[in-house]
Amino acid sequence: MGRFRKLKVEELGRISVEQFKQQPKVPVVVVLDNVRSGLNVGSVFRTSDAFRIQKIYLCGITAKPPNREINKTALGATESVDWEYFDDTAVLVRELRQQGFTILAVEQTENSVKLQDFRLDPSAKYALIFGNEVKGVQQNVIDLCDLALEIPQFGTKHSLNISVSAGIVIWEFVRQGRFLFND
């Protein structure tokens, strides 16, 4: 037998939805700006559950629960992660700014900051905006942001799937902030 035995589900020490709701959250909210695929939305819910993200905001044409495509990839995370719908992303961003959030678009822009060069302020709270699969984050929303974060890429494609981008950026925020490492 090898050195690594795969753990059974009951050995993982997963918490219940009720326990999840009571646990401290990472001071990050995720904003989905017109994300058209329910499968992508569900994946973001699942990642947000995994890293105890505070809340997800679904904006514009973004699908909202209950939704079969979302459920297929969320695997129940729509029950654990708080979410809210806003018709207009820009209206939400203005509200988040009033609540003291630093607003970051995850987008390729002029003067964007590469993710590896970004230094998180552990005392701040952040709103991460991810955009439409084809058009990205709307320009009028980017105009309201404090910063644009860019995930460096080195291949022939110029973009990543939104759920992959969310996973990379959310993990980097959790890693830098060491938010959950003392549990």
Short structural summary:
Helix content is 33%, strand content 21%.
Task: Describe it.
- By secondary structure, this protein is an alpha/beta fold.
- The protein has a single domain, classed as SPOUT methyltransferase, trefoil knot domain (Alpha/beta knot, 3-Layer(aba) Sandwich).
- Helices cover 33% and strands 21% of the residues.
- It contains 7 helices and 7 strands, in the order H-E-H-E-H-H-E-H-E-E-E-H-E-H.
- The protein has helices spanning 17-22, 38-50, 68-74, 77-80, 89-98, 139-142, 162-177, and strands spanning 26-33, 53-59, 83-86, 101-106, 113-114, 125-131, 147-150.
- A 7-stranded parallel beta sheet has the order 3-2-1-6-4-7-5, sandwiched between helices.
- Helix 2 packs parallel to helix 3 (68-74) and helix 2 packs parallel to helix 7.
- The longest helix has 16 residues, at 162-177.
- It is globular and about 50 Å long.
- It starts with 16 loop residues before the first helix and ends in a 6-residue tail after the last helix.
Distance between the termini: 31 Å
Q: Assign the CATH superfamily.
A: SPOUT methyltransferase, trefoil knot domain
The domain tally reads 1
CATH fold title: Alpha/beta knot
Helix-strand makeup class: alpha/beta
Mean pLDDT: 95
- Highest CATH level, the class: Alpha Beta
How many individual helices?
Answer: 7
**Sheet with the most strands?**
7 strands, parallel
Low-confidence stretches: none
Task: State Rg.
Answer: 17 Å
Tell me what portion of residues adopts beta-strand conformation. Answer: 15-25%
Helix and strand sequence: HEHEHHEHEEEHEH
> Main sheet: which strands, in order across?
3-2-1-6-4-7-5
Report the CATH architecture.
3-Layer(aba) Sandwich
Give the CA-based shape. globular
Give the fraction of residues assigned to helices: 25-40%
